[in-house]
Amino acid sequence: MTTATADPGAPRDRGRPWSLSKAAVNGALVLATAYTLLPLVWLLTAAAKNTGDLLGGRSLSPATWHLGANLHALATTGDGIYFRWYLNSLLYAGIGALLCALVCVCAGYAFHVYAFPGKEQLFGLVLLGVLVPTTALALPMYLLASELGVVNTFWAVFVPSLVNPFGVYLARVFCAGYVPGEVLEAARMDGAGELRTFWSVGLRMVMPGFVTVFLFQFTAIWNNFFLPLVMLSDNRLFPVSLGLYSWNTQTHAFPEYYPLVVTGSLLGIVPLVIAFIALQRHWKAGLTAGSVK
User: Would the pTM of this model clear 0.90, i.e. be above it?
Assistant: First the structure.
């Protein structure tokens, strides 16, 4: 009686392990998506609830909607102080991120194009700045601002937002990938000066990097909380993040602030969503530049 032996060259049935691994990956993606979207769904529904619904745990219930009343209360509380905070955040983040992106691209362009003594050592200091957490710099910046007499002013929060070591590093990487030396040399041969070459040729070519640095810095400044907390005491200069925090600290004594904090938080993410949607074409091009280089 002979025993059948398996042919070592025969293909193995791998369908079942593959389907299990596919189901596991899809399940993990579903959980990650739910984990990401659930806070946003809660914020959308909770912004339309009154104090009783929020304290009673009915934030996700579709039964009652008070979004109009919440927006009216948000606009009238403190003589409309919330929208002053909103304007402050737009100034801090919008102008600050724009100027910071320009400074970073200029610095990255200079590090990429020009050769000067101590270039790599100076760039090493920039990389060292990336490793220093911003919270560790808050106290030294406060002491410096105090010496300059700008504590509790717009400039105490605005000027530090113009510096971003990671943005300089990122801009140099983008310049290395987007700005070939032959194009710059051709512009110089045509009679363009260094500033004209940068503004008309280099900046145009590295625009995806400019937009990427702008979006990163805009998000960082908009969500910045600790630096304004240290620098500011006048609530008329608060950004949205610090203003909502000040309201949230009063909710134990004044529960009517709960809907204001939640509705204000919902409005607070609108500029971020608009910025990413409006600039996503340039941002995606910047993120995928390395894969097609």
Answer: no
